[in-house]
Amino acid sequence: MPHTSYPSSYYAASANPVPARPELQGEVETDVCVIGAGYTGLSTALFLLENGFKVTVLEAAKVGFGASGRNGGQIVNSYSRDIDVIERTVGAKQAKLLGDMAFEGGRIIRERIAKYNIQCDLKDGGVFAALSAKQMGHLESQKKLWERFGHTQLELMDAKRIREVVGTDSYVGGMLDMSGGHIHPLNLALGEAAAVESLGGVIHEQSPAVKIDRGANPVVHTPKGRVKAKFIVVAGNAYLGGLVPELASKSMPCGTQVITTEPLSADLAKSLLPTDYCVEDCNYLLDYYRLTGDNRLIFGGGVVYGARDPSNIEAIIRPKMLKVFPQLKDVKIDFAWTGNFLLTLSRLPQVGRIGDNIYYSQGCSGHGVTYTHLAGKLLAEVLRGQAERFDAFATLPHYPFPGGRMFQVPFSAIGAWYYTMRDKLGI
Ligand SMILES: Cc1cc2nc3c(=O)[nH]c(=O)nc-3n(C[C@H](O)[C@H](O)[C@H](O)COP(=O)(O)OP(=O)(O)OC[C@H]3O[C@@H](n4cnc5c(N)ncnc54)[C@H](O)[C@@H]3O)c2cc1C
User: Fold this and answer.
1) How far does the signal peptide extend, from start to end residue (predicted)?
2) pTM of full prediction above 0.90
């Protein structure tokens, strides 16, 4: 596999300095071998190290190379599926456990930032923006639903109130979550990696896991080395490829694209987002945006099923940005990139065990900044023998994509067409 570097994103261009992390050479022994240095892998490693485990992390490219270093940076609590749908599928008891955990990821991120002094431009406040009365009605019922699970911090906004926090006439209202917010996602991952190393964890970059010998004493192979471990945690998500075939068959990588403007004047930036909250709209194929620490607008949207890289990202995303903020028509785009998230049919994460000693979490289907931090905690809990919260996720049903990977793209493209029409018609 060729050595792989970051895409030319705003995040890579503004990353905090990092140490060299050499490729794995030869054989090492550890308690837990984590495959993948995104938030899932890093959060798992950090919780394990804090609990006395010896941990080796293998990263195919660089820390935060995947979605964790490319995303919109929005701390969006809860899951990509509403808790009442979960409740109908799995029953009240399990839904209660999941509902109780739905805002924990945002708290974990803030604890990490404070405890390890991570410099990643943290700002509080996330807005869900409604484009229609129907979407507003959905937000109202969501608020009631979350209050049932004790999450009472959400504030509904009418058209006048949302206009105070987003400088556009696009929305009929919205909902504000002050436990949401935004971060520089790559710098969060890099800070977490430094925290892992400060506790004695080892991270090897440019070290893809290419084979796993399963069994009582599992071994993970890389091109130039191998790791003998008591446990393996698979955290490769949309970038895992076919290393673990049973995970590939029930999920699909999808691309989503992000652009970043040149730095805006303080006045222009303030006129777009006066309170510096991040925003996502309520469409199924949603737009999301926020300001960076140096007053650029980061705007994301669009989904490419099957994770092929679109040729002209700016041409896809800029019109979406101008629809919300026509006042940016003369502003230059400095960066444009794509990244992959992992879609599951239920849009719920897939969590579980393979045999006695391989564990995984993947597929948060779009919203994963908070969930992946929670996943790390749950994976560490189960390895310490506390399975209740892990099992609340592990017992959610997993569905294979019909027809396997070959048919996944057309299948989901039909789904995307359906949801795009639904968004356009406001139904
Ligand atoms: C463009 C974009 C925007 C997004 N915006 C948001 C947002 O604003 N808010 C939100 O909540 N969510 C967002 N998401 C989703 C969120 O970023 C992801 O859910 C989350 O980062 C997934 O983290 P992860 O650690 O599971 O996977 P990743 O971050 O993808 O990490 C997986 C890592 O595993 C490595 N790897 C894979 N295979 C191997 C192997 N064989 N050996 C060794 N290493 C391997 C990869 O190189 C990669 O570094 C966005 C996603 C994208 C792509």
Assistant:
1) none
2) yes
